Amino acid sequence: MATTFHLRVWTRFLASPADVWALKTDPATMKAELRPWLTFCVPDGAALTRALEGDAPADLANSVRLGQVLPLAWPTRVESAVPRQSYRGITKSALFNRFEHDHIFEPTPDGCRYVDSVTFSSTAPAQKLVAIALQRLFQHRHAVAAKRLPTDPQATAVAVLRVLVEEDAA
Fold first, then answer.
1. Which residues span the domain enclosing 47?
2. What does the pLDDT look like over 113-157, one tens digit per residue?
3. Cβ distance 137 to 148 under 8 Å?
4. What's the structural domain count of the chain?
5. Distance in angstroms (rounded) separating the CA atoms of residues 164 and 147
6. What is the DSSP letter of 151?
7. What is the pTM of this model?
8. CATH no. for residue 139?
């Protein structure tokens, strides 16, 4: 039986929510944040932009590649979006039978706290290792983003990973 995990990684940017939104929703930035771990492809950036404007849900045929070895389809449905506040992507892939990713942009007095909130379960036998690797990947993404916009060094890539119990997962 798959274990369901919840991961929250956040960074306090010393930049406006609009600037953080522009950075974190740019396909080129998304790609850069995953290197060198993964190669990420968003084949229809215009569809992503429309979905993030809150027009309507959108299905995106994204893909990832681990090194030169493992290509993986990463079809994502952007289910909801409130521009410059939040958006939610749902993915099912060969590696994850559940992957719900909320991107949250919270205004702060000195900028914006950006939160990746991910609920997931893996199809891999070593589920805990996958969860730890995913945590490290998201911390890496936040560290890369912190090179593009100023952040509070004490509040950059802060992560909490936990196992959800049955009543949490419902």
1. 4-169
2. 999 999 999 999 999 999 999 999 999 999 999 999 999 999 999
3. no
4. 1
5. 32
6. B
7. 0.92
8. 3.30.530.20
